[in-house]
Design goal:
Number of helices: 10
Mean pLDDT: 91
Strand content: 15-25%
Radius of gyration: 20 Å
Number of strands: 13
Largest sheet: 7 strands, antiparallel
Distance between the termini: 48 Å
Structural class: alpha+beta
Low-confidence stretches: 1-13, 15-28
Length: 371
Amino acid sequence: MKDLIPALLFALTCSLSAHAQPADSPFQDEQTIELASGVVMPASELETLIQAAMAATTTPGAAIAVVNDGEVVYESTFGVEHVGTKAPLTTRSVFEAASLSKPLFGFLAMTFVQDGLLDLDRPLHEYLPNPDFPDDERYRRITARHVLAHQTGLPNWRDDNPELGLALKFTPGEGFFYSGEGYEYLAEVLAHLAQTNDAGLEALFQERIAQPLGMTRTTFIATREQLCARATPHIDGKTIRLKPQDPTFGAAYSVHTDAGDYIRFGLGLINGQVLDRESYAQYLEAQNSPIPADDPGRAYGLSDWALGFSIYDLPFGRFYSHGGNNPGYSSMFFVNPERRWAAVIFTNANQANDFLLTIAARLGGLDGYQP
């Protein structure tokens, strides 16, 4: 009962802060969209596919934005924020971006590299020892490059196997295993280098990344206004309780945003903003990650990892991509800077991978694609 009081107070605050919502789509009905392959399709055809895929996968709501030739040509929402109230999603509905936080955080880390504060290949232990690591000399080898390319050997989360905790799966740099723990460690290092805390990292993200890219509605530490505008999360078609405000800067998972704002990150990559040419090239450089041969992503074109992105080599170019899953939310982002093309998809459905892959395959121009 005690834990319920803050949640009730927060819900009351949100109910008292109702605000006008913009129209769902600012684009014309006859809008066309260029797919990643270069094929042009009517927006209405994509919308029909989205609605059918939502029905087939019990996805309550979805938001999407697409960039063609360096411009946002399509942004729209589908379905509802809440299956009970039937309130429709809008273009300002906020989603937990989950692991789409990682490429943004990697971009922030590269500003420290650009400023000469962080060396990608210097052991992080030399900047800030991690007291949570077991007494194992191998931990002292972990670098920022290992973290951003998932080569630390750390588990995804220590709670995944409480008996093993932070036990290394391999010597850093000698294998590949997706790890949120590594990102959280690097965030602690960046805070140490900047002599700040979680709130200070948020301020640095806003100053160095969000403001230059025009991302006015994207944060790692959600504002109260964002939390009130969140699409309700769903698991198996049923709503789950919204999490209260959290002051933690979760480098691996905590970004709150909407499709129209996150796609500005794609525009920033397309236009080469924020980072100088050398740092930008390092950020997107393939890291020769030893991805297991049986990784299911290989069937879709997964070839390597950059410093925050997975790399997909498709018949019509190299795409940088990331997916995200938080309880009740799923998302996907992909960008091809060379073709000046990008897209982002958010849903308020848990593990909506079938839906995301269906839409991503169509946007990619991979008609009938079956991995």
